[in-house]
Amino acid sequence: MKVLGIDTATSILGIALRVDGETVEQVLYRQARNHDAMLTPAVRDLLASHSLRVRDLEAVAVSIGPGSFTGLRIGLSFVKGLVFGTNVKVVTVPTLEALARTLRNERRDLLPVECAIVLPGRKGEVFWGKFRLSNDGVEQARQTELVSVEELAALLPASFVIAGEGAEVLDNARRNYFALYSIEASAAVVAEVGEERVRRGEFEDIASLEPFYGKEFLVKDTSGRLPKVLRDASSQFQSKD
Q1: pLDDT higher than 70, residue 148
Q2: Which domain holds residue 208?
Q3: How many Å apart are CA 27 and CA 39, to the nearest integer?
Q4: What is the pTM of this model?
Q5: 108 and 126 assigned to the same domain
Q6: Are residues 124 and 208 in the same domain?
Q7: Contact between 74 and 166 (Cβ < 8 Å)
Q8: What is the CATH number for 11?
């Protein structure tokens, strides 16, 4: 099985290729606000380096949110264009779940543990979810919410494990109160979770699929940038397949 993982939900653009249960390559780009320009050539080069075409994939796994509104739209628009006209399936991975899995994979010395995965929202707000991490896996113990930094800082107990791009803001609200861990978004984990969902047949209808923003979001005029991402993916890949 070949699964392509794509994560554009945070400041890091990540792509990864998973083949028969193993991650064969992951590429991360730490250039915020440039995902739209980098995504198409990054995926093209990754597939070419493994002598693969889009139609050789069983599925594409994409981080679905919450996260950067623009990043989420770029990622999902690209994926829709990428698989258009093929039999390649699409599976989605909640961003906070993927980050929780990343923390579990990188810090097994902590297990078992409860943690808060936190991502920045807007205007002093953060997205967060509570997870239980163990050797058996990751379980979401509280649904994803959008709350103020002050509200979440007051809610969580002392020494509670926090991680994610919004965790530092939370830690600053109550300095030295939490156990802060640094993790980065991992497209390899998105592909890993995505592969599990492929095996369970949890495919998406791309015609109706939208990002999970975590709040009402009105699409602003972006002068055609986001539709162009979809057009680029469709034209540059499908014409060669």
Answers
A1: yes
A2: 2-94+185-238
A3: 11
A4: 0.89
A5: yes
A6: no
A7: no
A8: 3.30.420.40
Residue 22: Cβ within 10 Å count: 9
C-alpha distances out from residue 7 to 10, 55, 67, 118, 200, Å: 8, 20, 10, 16, 21
Tens digits of per-residue pLDDT, 38-90?
999 999 999 999 999 999 999 999 999 999 999 999 999 999 999 999 999 99
Which pLDDT belongs to residue 232?
60
Same-domain check for residues 198 and 177: no
In a shared domain, residues 76 and 192:
yes
Q: Which of 162, 181, 200 is the last residue of a domain?
A: 181
Q: Which SS3 state, helix, strand or coil, does residue 95 take?
A: helix
Residue indicated by tokens 């990754």? 46
> How many domains are contained in the chain?
2
CA 115 to CA 118: how far, in whole Å?
Answer: 10
Q: Judge whether 99 and 164 are in contact, CB under 8 Å.
A: yes
Expressed in percent and rounded to 5, the helix, strand and coil fractions of the chain are: 35, 30, 35
Residue 217 Cα distances to 6, 32, 97, 220, angstroms: 22, 21, 22, 9
Under a CB-based contact definition with an 8 Å cutoff, are residues 208 and 184 in contact?
no
pLDDT, tens digit, 9 for 90 and up, residues 27-38: 999 876 778 889
How far apart CA 124 and CA 127 sit, in angstroms, is 11
Question: Are 206 and 146 part of one and the same domain?
Answer: no
Q: What's the pLDDT tens digit per position in 172-200?
A: 999 989 999 999 999 999 999 999 999 99
